[in-house]
């Protein structure tokens, strides 16, 4: 049906004097909030709280499935995933894996640390070990490895705080991809620029990736950016001033996490799955390329 000028649907793309769009139901009110399902601009009187962001009255009414197919009316996250009953499941699984490995390390001691930690290559004269020697699994296992209680406590508290909102916004599969790629990005940058004989471990790279993704998500939803920017700034200061911290893992995770999250939440609706898959594939290929180039430098 063609829209009639002046009808209630027309103001969807209207702009006010401040450059913000007008609420699709109240043309005289500009707003920076959009429905997380259909992306129509909505004012405070029209916002209906959802698990992530807000929905417009039309999407809330259509949730029952009348007049549309079940696929069209199924609630979706901002990134296009089905809304899960438990938006903390993957976060809890990741925390469980980290705690389980920590308990194993406390039981086994230095042997497990030396076998699973992030190590590029040992100096000449030592038993060959490290990623350069073909032990690529260290890029992954180091992400779940902690030695001290304060280390794992801080990382797990950060994961519990950052994980559930991102898992709810992205969906389980996309959140898992974000976490793993962020951690791999931190391991890859560490491998590239740090001392290859240096030893590193911890989930900090993945956590910084979640922090970068949180900033991207908040900007996408037009929320106040000050809290997350202040938190990010404090963590970066801590990264570069506190001793024995692998800044490479933090920066690598932050960059990859922000980039992957941007591709996920800004993917056009008509090609959402394709763009999101391509974003993850490009990030993974970049990580593999970094590791491959560094390996050639160390063994060539």
Question: How would you describe this structure in keywords?
Answer:
single chain, Rhomboid-like fold, 55% helix, 4 strands, 300 residues, mainly alpha, Rhomboid family intramembrane serine protease, disordered N terminus, two-stranded antiparallel sheet, serine-type endopeptidase activity, two-stranded antiparallel ribbon
Concise account of the structure shown:
It is found in: Membrane. With 300 residues, this protein is mostly helical.
Molecular structure report:
55% of the residues lie in helices and 3% in strands. The radius of gyration is 23 Å and the shape is elongated. Mean pLDDT is 86; it is low at 1-14 and 64-73. It is mainly α and 300 residues long. It contains eleven helices and four strands. The chain folds into two domains: 1-75, no CATH class; 89-299, Rhomboid-like (Rhomboid-like fold, Up-down Bundle). It has helices spanning 57-61, 70-73, 89-108, 110-116, 138-141, 149-170, 172-193, 204-220, 226-241, 247-265, 272-299; strands at 48-49, 54-55, 118-119, 199-200. One of its GO terms (molecular function) is serine-type endopeptidase activity.
Helices and strands, with pairings:
Blueprint: E1 48-49, E2 54-55, H1 57-61, H2 70-73, H3 89-108, H4 110-116, E3 118-119, H5 138-141, H6 149-170, H7 172-193, E4 199-200, H8 204-220, H9 226-241, H10 247-265, H11 272-299
Helix pairs in contact: 3-6, 6-7, 6-8, 7-8, 7-10, 7-11, 8-10, 10-11
InterPro entries: Peptidase_S54_rhomboid_dom, Rhomboid-like_sf, Rhomboid_protease_S54
Transmembrane segments: 89-107, 175-193, 199-218, 225-243, 249-267, 274-293
Organism: Streptomyces gilvosporeus
């Amino acid at each position: 049906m063609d829209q009639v000028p002046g009808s209630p649907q027309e103001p969807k793309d209207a702009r006010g004097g401040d450059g913000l769009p007008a609420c699709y139901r109240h043309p005289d009110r500009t707003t920076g909030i959009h429905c997380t399902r259909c992306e129509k601009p909505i004012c405070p009187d029209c916002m209906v709280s959802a698990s992530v962001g807000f929905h417009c009255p039309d999407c809330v009414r259509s949730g029952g499935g009348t007049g549309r197919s079940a696929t069209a009316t199924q609630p979706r996250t901002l990134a296009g995933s089905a809304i899960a009953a438990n938006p903390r499941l993957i976060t809890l699984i990741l925390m469980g894996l980290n705690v389980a490995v920590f308990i194993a390390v406390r039981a086994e001691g230095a042997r497990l640390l030396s076998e699973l930690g992030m190590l590029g290559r040992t100096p000449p004269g030592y038993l060959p070990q490290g990623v350069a020697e073909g032990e690529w699994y260290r890029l992954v296992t180091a992400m779940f490895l902690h030695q001290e209680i304060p280390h794992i406590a801080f990382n797990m508290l950060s994961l519990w705080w950052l994980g559930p909102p991102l898992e709810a916004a992205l969906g389980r599969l996309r959140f898992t991809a974000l976490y793993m790629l962020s951690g791999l990005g931190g391991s890859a940058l560490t491998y590239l620029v740090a001392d290859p004989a240096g030893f590193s471990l911890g989930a900090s790279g993945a956590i910084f990736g979640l922090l970068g993704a949180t900033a991207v998500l908040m900007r996408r939803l037009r929320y106040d950016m000050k809290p997350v920017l202040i938190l990010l700034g404090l963590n970066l200061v801590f990264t570069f001033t506190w001793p024995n911290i692998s800044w490479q893992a933090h920066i690598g995770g932050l960059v990859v996490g922000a980039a992957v999250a941007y591709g996920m939440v800004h993917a056009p609706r008509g090609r959402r799955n394709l763009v999101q898959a391509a974003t993850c594939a490009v990030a993974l290929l970049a990580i593999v390329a970094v590791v491959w180039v560094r390996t050639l430098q160390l063994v060539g």
